[in-house]
């Protein structure tokens, strides 16, 4: 059994696995949007990760996001682009 954390949003609380990088909003989206057990094409996921990384880097450069927040986002994106956490 993997450890979980409790996250809160406007809708209430949810348990999120500590093994995931995503938060409560993504967890709710996964629950409510699942129409099949087929995952999105890997190409789409990888492109989305590249956009997420670019946004974090741009926001840090513009000083709109602190490095303490953007750095881990970029690190996670780099890990995923290298093939980690993709199942």
Structure write-up:
- With 87 residues, the protein is of the alpha+beta class.
- It has two domains: 4-33, no CATH class; 42-81, no CATH class.
- It is built from three helices and two strands, in the order E-E-H-H-H.
- Strands 1-2 form a two-stranded antiparallel ribbon.
- The longest helix has 20 residues, at 42-61.
- The model has no long low-confidence stretch (mean pLDDT 86).
How would you briefly describe this protein structure?
This protein has 87 residues and is of the alpha+beta class.
Key features?
two-stranded antiparallel ribbon; alpha+beta; globular; 2 domains; about 15% strand; 3 helices; about 90 residues
Q: State the total count of DSSP E strands.
A: 2
Report the order of strands and helices.
EEHHH
The main β sheet shows up as: 2 strands, antiparallel
Physical arrangement of strands within the biggest beta sheet? 1-2
**What distance lies between the first and last C-alpha atoms, to the nearest angstrom?**
18 Å
Please state the structural category: alpha+beta
Taken as a percent bin, the fraction of beta residues is 5-15%
Number of helices: 3
- As for the number of domains, it is 2
* Mean model confidence by pLDDT: 86
């Amino acid at each position: 059994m993997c450890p979980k954390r409790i996250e809160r949003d406007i809708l209430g609380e949810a348990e999120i696995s500590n093994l995931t990088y995503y938060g409560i909003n993504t967890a709710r989206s996964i629950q409510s949007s699942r129409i099949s057990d087929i995952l999105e094409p890997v190409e789409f996921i990888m492109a989305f990760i590249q956009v997420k990384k670019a946004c974090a880097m741009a926001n840090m450069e513009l000083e709109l996001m602190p490095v303490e927040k953007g750095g881990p986002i970029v690190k996670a994106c780099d890990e995923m682009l290298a093939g980690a956490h993709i199942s």
